[in-house]
Structure formats: structure tokens, C-alpha cells
Amino acid sequence: MAALSDLKLIASGKVREIYDLGDELLLVASDRISTYDAVHPNPIPDKGAVLTAISTYWFEQTGSLIPNHLVSVTDGVPEEIRGRAMVVKKLRMLPVEAIVRGYITGSGWKDYQATGAVSGIELPAGLRESDRLPAPIFTPSTKAEVGHDEAIDFAQAAELVGDEGLMARVRDVSIELYSFAAKHALERGVILADTKFELGLDENGVLTLGDEVLTPDSSRYWPADGYEPGRGQPSFDKQYVRDWASSTGWDRKPPAPEIPEQVVQGTRARYVEAYERIAGEPFQAWLTRTGAA
Predict the structure, then answer these.
(1) What is the mean pLDDT of the chain?
(2) DSSP three-state, residue 41
(3) Which helix (H) or strand (E) segment is 24 a member of?
(4) Is 237 helix (H, G, I), strand (E, B) or coil?
(5) What count of Cα atoms within 13 Å lies in the side-chain half-sphere of residue 55?
(6) Are 109 and 185 in contact (CB under 8 A)?
(7) Largest CA-CA distance found in the chain, in angstroms, rounded
(8) Which of 229, 203, 244, 246 is nearest to 90 (CA)?
């Protein structure tokens, strides 16, 4: 088996590295964490393994709804990154992010307050922050190379993709995926407020789910037992770090400050709890199954 240093690195982001394996790719999730588009100097232990574990769980759960790019989390994965990496099929990724919202929060809440709509979709009057929507809505966004993604409506998304029929399939399957996952998560005591999917076409032109899926980094998960509309909700993600960063007086420009140990451990605990609740097994079971060091 090749060591990681022997492989060709083709992309490195705030959190992940991508290596070329010829016909396939190796996606490696690091423990790095960013807030406000700046990476903090110290990592969150096991964060990369949690992201990979949750993605793998959901790829396996949703395979009957849409094909996905997962090939293996063991075969072809160098030993030093077991548990945090997956071999995947190469896809031609679509130039939009497929965002589905089941609750009104975040940027959607801000847009609703200003206009009564999100991504061109009119919503009922009188909604409170964190209210559940009558039905999930599809609110796509651009994929910005630099800076922030921009919310767009369905027509703009179809124009970017260049195929309205394909974009309609993306919308429909994204809502189906969200609805499936939200029902499953709620049975485990977790609310899936919203999420982001990335889809592409495989070598045969088949629409395929790619990237990471339904992780705490790409989704907003809330504990169901503390849910209370009319305010923001605590979440199983990096909001804990974001709240700390906001309180420091940091100007949100690089370099990001070092995260205190208490916040590091609190954040790790939230990520691990998200996996254990959703997958219904100890996080250690994932590490053992994949042969993680």
C-alpha cells in the first residue's frame, strides 16, 4: 500500500486534501477548523475522522435514493490516515451547492426578515427564528472560489448548470435526501435544520452524490430535547468555536487566534456526540472498523 507521501496532491482546502489515484480520488479530512474563512492554528482532535465516519454512514443509508461516489474507507487508504479518508469515484461536479432548509435559521432567517422570502421562495408571514417550515425548501447557492457563496434562485442555478431538467432532478433528489435524513435523525433525538449537498455526473453522465454528506460541517444539527423556536439553537458543529471567536475581539481576519483547550475539548465532544447519536454506535467502533491508528 502506498504511503501518503507517495501520492499526488491535487487540492488542499481549509479542511481537506485531495490526492489523485488515477481513476479515483483519495479525500482526506484533517482536524483543522476554520471560522470566518480563517483556519485556527490548533486542530480539533478526531474531527476529520468524525466527518468521514458520518459521511460514510449517510452514503450507505442513502444509496437507494441516489448513487454516490464512495468506493472504500479501507482499500487503497494509507494506514497513517485510516478513519479520516475515503477512496471515491471521480465526478464532474456541478457548479452549484444544493442547499435544503427544513427550518428557518442562519442566512435564510436574515433573508426572510428582510424580504419574506428565501431564494425567491415566498414563505408564510409571522415565522419565528428556528421555526419548522411547512415543507423543506431548495435554496441553491454559487460555489465561490474566493469569498462567500451567494444565494441564488432555481432559475439562476439552472442557468449555471446549463440544463433545467438536470437542475430539477438535483432539486428533487436533494429534498428527498434531506427529508429521509431529517426523519432518521429525529428518531435519534437530533433535528436536521438544513444541509448542503454537492452533486456531479459520473463517467456515464449519471447524477451522483459527492463531496461530504450530512456532516456537522455541511449541516445544522440541533439537539431535539432543547428545541425552542423564537431564538437560535445550540448545534452539533463548530458554532461553539464560532461563538468563542466572536467573543475574543478578533477582527475575523487571518491569522485566526489559538483556540483554548476547554473550547477544543468541548467542540470535539459535540462532533463525537453527533456521530454516536446519528449512527447509533460508539465512535470507537468506527476507528476500530477502519483500522485507524
Answers:
(1) 95
(2) coil
(3) strand 24-29
(4) coil
(5) 31
(6) no
(7) 58
(8) 203
